[in-house]
Amino acid sequence: MQIERERRWLVTSLDPKVYRDAPRKHFQQGYFNTVPGESLRVRIIEEEPIKLEAKMTHKRGKGQSRPETEVSIPMKAAVELYEYCCSDKLEKTRYFVGRCEIDVFHGPLKGLMLVEIEYREDEKIEDVPLPDWLEGAVEVTESISNLMLAKLATILGDSTPPKPLHHYLPSPIPMIVLTGGPGSGKTTAMEALKKEFGNEIKFVPEAATILISQVGIVPPSDDPVGIARFQQTLLRIQRAFEEAAVDQAIRDGKKAVLLDRGTLDSAAYLDGGVKDLERICSIKAHDEAARYARVIWLAPAPESVYEDIRSNNPARREDHAEAYRLGHALFFSWSPYTVVKSAKLDGWAHKYEQVRSYVLGAFGS
Prior knowledge:
By secondary structure, this protein is an alpha+beta fold. It folds into 2 domains: 2-168, Hypothetical Protein Pfu-838710-001; 175-363, Rossmann fold (3-Layer(aba) Sandwich), CATH 3.40.50. Helices cover 34% and strands 26% of the residues. The protein is built from 10 helices and 14 strands. The protein has helices at 75-84, 146-156, 186-197, 207-214, 224-252, 273-281, 285-290, 303-311, 320-334, 348-363, and strands at residues 2-11, 24-31, 38-47, 51-60, 65-72, 88-97, 100-105, 113-118, 138-139, 175-180, 201-204, 256-260, 294-298, 340-343. Strands 1-5-4-3-2-6-7-8 form an 8-stranded antiparallel β-barrel. The chain has a 5-stranded parallel β-sheet with strand order 11-12-10-13-14, with helices on both faces. The protein is elongated, with a radius of gyration of 23 Å.
């Protein structure tokens, strides 16, 4: 395994003279269905004069630095995998201009161009000058990957989209997680934020609540296999909610997506915590946490306050000790993997103001 260090830019206009006579390779890339945060691809490479090779590559995470493992595989195996096992595919020609790699896409993605620059381990990225012809390009290192583009190519198929392709590309809209145990004020805070920032933020309800209360799928308490399958289902639904919410937020011109709980919240409800969640759902907690711009945790209410809340809500079954335990289990599910902003009770108005400032700080409003 090695660490890939690179940056990517989306180019909307580039003089063909920059790359027309440069060395080139033609790529066919197919992607397998994998767990979120990882990609596994097969790449068939054609180089002039006619030379064919094939490689299998596994990557994890996103951003400027990602673990990468790449191996050469037989061409016959590559063709078989590409044709029958890959759910999403793309084709592109890569031109090598200095240390820049210019990708010109074909098929459904015709018209898109990406520029990549790879960096050595001993280089400081900020010290490497960019070519003049890259001026005006938009950096998309954090927001666009070839896997995303392959999925877009699958959606487009042979159809001609009504808008230019760049309208369908992911945008770096931050996702913010609001979490907390029973009686912490999470639901009240969500409603208050919705009233104040409904025009700026896309709000996403808790996936587990919808699954349990509206679909009637209840996690068993004494069946490890049933619990595991519930968590796998919940992760898929949570992911689907998040992706759809980001797409809708882009279309609506929102600045952020605010989630009632994130994927690592589930660890608080498992005996083995995060380790159980990683094993059951085949995820890495660090990668999950990195998907969110901010995690805001509402501290448990003091016992006297909690008992008042509980008396006004017959559905609240947890006593204060259980609410306190669960609240802190949620905090410790996130804190080893990301910075968790804590909102503590010093009167509800002060607690809400903490939440409000943390939310605003995540998207610079």
